[in-house]
Write a structure and sequence with these properties.
By secondary structure, the chain is mainly β. The chain is built from one helix and 18 strands. The longest helix has 4 residues.
Length: 269
């Protein structure tokens, strides 16, 4: 590893086995991986325990799929420069090509993650801890809120932050497995609150959320949206229920106030 990447890797224990569903799994305890010289002066990974569960099929393909990643007492620093250089590529550290690893779900416990994407001008720190006692989400007793996720960062030079209670496992891609959330995000004088369930947040496979937005100006939403710029507007308040299943989007219980003008739109729930 050191000969290829110029970085040290150390661990206390390594266990290889199968899950109950016969998926290959690798568990590492006391893991330390040195960061790239150009990245932050902190480890790439320092963790009490990391467990990686692999898709059998992907092991014979060009892209490796991790069906679940479990982090316990972990600090992780992921950085990508605007030209595609990534600090987590250890075997081929100069490879700037397409993504080769897909993470479908994450179970993080008492862990911190920093993610930097030069192409998006994004730098965000997240911290996740236990939520005690666990909370119930109305209508979804099967998905108790058990963790507290706090995030803070900047995008295009604009600061944002937030905090949300979430259920046990967050899903990103191709799982169709929902998780629950209740929290808010803020930037400047704009606040966004959300409560409900979501699945596979990279692709937004499913949404069933109550939303409340209080924006001083639509332009302040830039850190939360892929667009580079939004027009300035008068202050607005928007409340709605948003539902998405597959490719079908449905909005209901919409109420909007722009400036001193109230707008109402009722659609089937």
């Amino acid at each position: 590893m050191y000969e290829r990447s110029g970085r040290s890797l150390d661990f206390d224990e390594l266990h290889i086995g199968l899950t109950g569903s016969l998926e290959p799994t690798v568990q590492v305890r006391g893991l330390f991986i040195q960061n790239a010289a150009w990245a932050a002066k902190r480890p790439l990974v320092r963790a009490g325990q990391v467990t990686l569960t692999f898709s059998w099929r992907s092991l014979s393909e060009d892209h490796v799929t991790l069906t679940r990643v479990v982090l316990v007492d972990a600090e992780v620093d992921l950085e990508r420069q605007s030209d595609g250089l990534r600090n987590w590529r250890l075997i081929h550290p100069e490879d700037r090509g397409p993504q080769r690893t897909r993470v479908l779900s994450l179970d993080a416990q008492r862990s911190e993650l920093r993610f930097v994407h030069g192409g998006l001008d994004l730098d965000v720190d997240t911290r996740i801890s236990a939520l005690e006692p666990a909370q119930a989400l109305t209508g979804h007793p099967e998905l108790p809120l058990t963790k507290w996720l706090v995030f803070r960062g900047t995008r295009a030079g604009k600061a944002f932050s937030g905090q949300t209670a979430v259920s046990e496992v967050l899903t990103f891609l191709d799982t169709a497995t929902p998780f629950a959330l209740r929290g808010q995000a803020q930037t400047a004088r704009t606040r966004l609150k959300a409560e409900g369930i979501a699945a596979d947040i990279v692709t937004l496979a499913e949404l069933d959320l109550d939303l409340h937005l209080a924006a001083n100006s639509l332009a302040e939403l830039q850190p939360f949206l892929p667009t580079d710029a939004l027009p300035a507007s008068r202050p607005c308040v928007v409340e709605a229920h948003l539902n998405k299943v597959g490719a079908k989007w449905t909005g209901s219980r919409l109420r909007a106030t722009i400036g001193h003008t109230d707008l109402f739109c009722v659609s089937p729930g």
